[in-house]
Amino acid sequence: MIYHYFIDAPLEFGVKYIDICSSDTGIKSVSFANQKNQEENPNDLALSCAEALKGYFEGRVFSFDLPLEPDGTPFQKKVWRILCDIKFGEVWSYKDLALKIGSTNYSRAVGSANSKNPIFIIIPCHRVIGNDGKLSGYAAGVEIKKWLLEHEKKFSSKI
Q: pLDDT at residue 140 above 90?
């Protein structure tokens, strides 16, 4: 069964809600929504995820210990697992990420996998920036990416 639970998004995001979708055994997606397009039917996992995200936004939670079940190709899942190694407040370039996969030749492929990440914030694809140090691409918009990175920079001294 699939469960949904919505929390209010930070006002700066320009969207109303964060939609948490889970199964009985893992988080399937965390996405942004302007309306509750699903009936809420949270399970304990969705509620735990909601509490962790609220803590993240309040500057109390710096890492997530939740079972994740994103749908994707084996390559995408490998990229997403490696993204989880990027610590709160750190940034990697697409080149850094590609090297962790095995070669700088994978830069475009990891960028593509990054853009298809279904579990925003928890799988921290926002922590990957362009090789030139500039913010580039974020499925939810570069302004949200910028906000997330600034938020983490503000609280990273608490770790």
A: no
Catalytic annotation on 125? yes
92 strand-pairing partners? 128
DSSP per-residue string spanning 55-67: HHHTT---S----
Gyration radius of the chain over CA positions: 15
Q: Which of 84, 89, 91 is nearest to 157 (CA)?
A: 89
Helices 74-83 and 107-115 meet at what angle, rounded to 10? Answer: 90
Record the pTM: 0.94
Query: pLDDT digits over 5-58, tens only?
Result: 999 999 989 999 999 999 999 999 999 999 998 899 999 999 999 999 999 999
Domain-by-domain residue ranges, the chain?
3-57, 74-158
| CATH code assigned to 74-158 | 1.10.10.10
The active-site residue, picked from 21, 49, 84, 125, is: 125
Check whether 133 has a pLDDT greater than 90.
no
